Amino acid sequence: PFVGDWENEALHWIPFRSRSCRRFFRKLNKNKATGNDMISAEILKVLADELCIPFTKVCRRLFYEGHWPEIWKKHLIVPIYKKGPAFEPGNYRGVHLTTILSKQAEQMVGLHLVPHLRRYAFGTNQWAFSTGLSARDLVTMLVLSWILAVCTGQKVVAYLSDISGAFDKVFVPYLLAKLHRYGIGGTLFNFLRSYLAPRTGQVVVQGSLSDPYEI
To answer: In whole angstroms, how far apart are CA 24 and each of 17, 28, 48, 196, 212?
Structure first.
C-alpha cells in the first residue's frame, strides 16, 4: 500500500539534547521495576550526569538509522492475580516489564516525534493520548452536540462497543499505511517501522521463564 512520495518527509533535523536526557534520568522513580537488563532506576538516576551525553548519542543514532535494538523488543511478563480461582490462568493480568533505558529512549525520541505526528497524522478526531484533551472534554463535547441535535429536531443514535486489547494491539501494516497516507515518511517512517516490529515475551514466575513467544 505504500505508493507515491512523502509530503512531510520529516523533521529534517531533531535536536537531541543531553540536558533533556539528564532531566529524564533525574525524574526516574527509584521503585520502578527493571526489565531483562536488570539495570535499576536508582543506578540510572545516580549516574544521570555521566550517562546523559553518551545515551543522547545512542538515541540520536537509533532515530536517524531507523533502528530499535532487539534487546529492547524482549519483554518480561509478570502475572498479577486479579480474582477468582488462583489456579485459572485467565484470572491473572500480565504486566510487561521492559528495560528502563528503552523507556528513556522512547521519551527522548517522542519529545519531538509526537508533536510532529500530532500536527500531521493524528487528525482532529484524535482525543486519546493528546495533550490538553481528556475523556471529560470528549464527553462534554458529545453531550452538548446531542443537546443541540435534540433541540433542532434531530435524532441521536449511539453505538457502544468494546474492542479487545484496543490499546495493546496494533495492526502494523494498516498503521504504517495510514501514516504514509498522511505524508509521514523517510526517517520517521523507518524508525516507526522498526519500533513497531514484532516483539517477544517470556512469562516469569519465581525466577522461572517460559519459552519466548511473539506478542
So the answer is: 11, 7, 9, 23, 31
203 Cβ neighbours under 8 A, 6+ residues apart: 77, 78, 79, 94, 209, 210
| Residue 188 to residue 200: CA distance in whole angstroms | 23
Angle at 191 between CA 187 and CA 194, to 5 degrees: 145
CB-neighbour burial class of residue 37 (10 A; exposed 0-12, middle 13-18, buried 19+): middle
Asked if 176 contacts 195 with a C-beta cutoff of 8 angstroms, the reply is no
- Name the amino acid, one letter, at 67: H
Q: What is the pLDDT of residue 164?
A: 65
pLDDT above 50 (res 10): no
Confidence of residue 11 (pLDDT cuts 50, 70, 90): low
Give the pLDDT band (50/70/90) at residue 69: very high
Strands 200-205 and 92-97: unpaired
Enumerate the H helices of the chain as residue ranges: 18-26, 41-46, 48-64, 100-120, 135-151, 172-181, 186-195
Q: What is the residue type of 204?
A: V
Torsion of CA 97, 101, 103, 105, to 10 degrees: -150
**Whether the Cβ atoms of residue 90 and residue 25 lie closer than 8 Å to each other:** no
Provide the whole-model pTM: 0.76
